[in-house]
Amino acid sequence: MLVALLVAPLAFALLALAIPSNRMRPWLLPLAGCVHLTLTALVMRQTSALAWNGWIVVDPLGRVFLGFVSVLFMLCSVYAVGYLALRADHENRVFCACLLALLGMMTLILVAHHLGLMWVALEACTLTSAPLIYFNRTTRSLDPETHARIVEALRQHGGNVTAAARALGLHRTQLRRLLERHGIDTR
Question: Contact at 8 Å (CB) between 85 and 26?
């Protein structure tokens, strides 16, 4: 049952890549959410959930967060259907697949009892969330790492845009444009 909990979102992600219809693909999200929520409930009913020689275990704290993630994904997946319908001009194949893969990797983080496996799942979460951030393809889409680097450079240089731009390897006007476009305060 525990292996199915990990494999199901990834199988739905592959299915999202295979479905050609932009209108039908978003409906995979709540379907996958229902399957994940059901599997989560079944795993939580087991007295000991263990797989792969103890590398995958659902401990008491994991049960709490696994339930939280599963319910939260279910709610977000219902919202996502309407969200994607309003953005029918955008191709949603990568968005749906990455959102489902993100669910699988977040689940793996919660049940992994091997630090290396947990680290791989965490890095996979980072990689699958990047396309989600850039889905709208607007000038305001900025990945969290770049945002953090800009804010940190400004903090280190006391809000001095010229010095922060030099530290980031940018021209001062480039940094000013980024600050204005993304609403980053220099103070």
Answer: yes
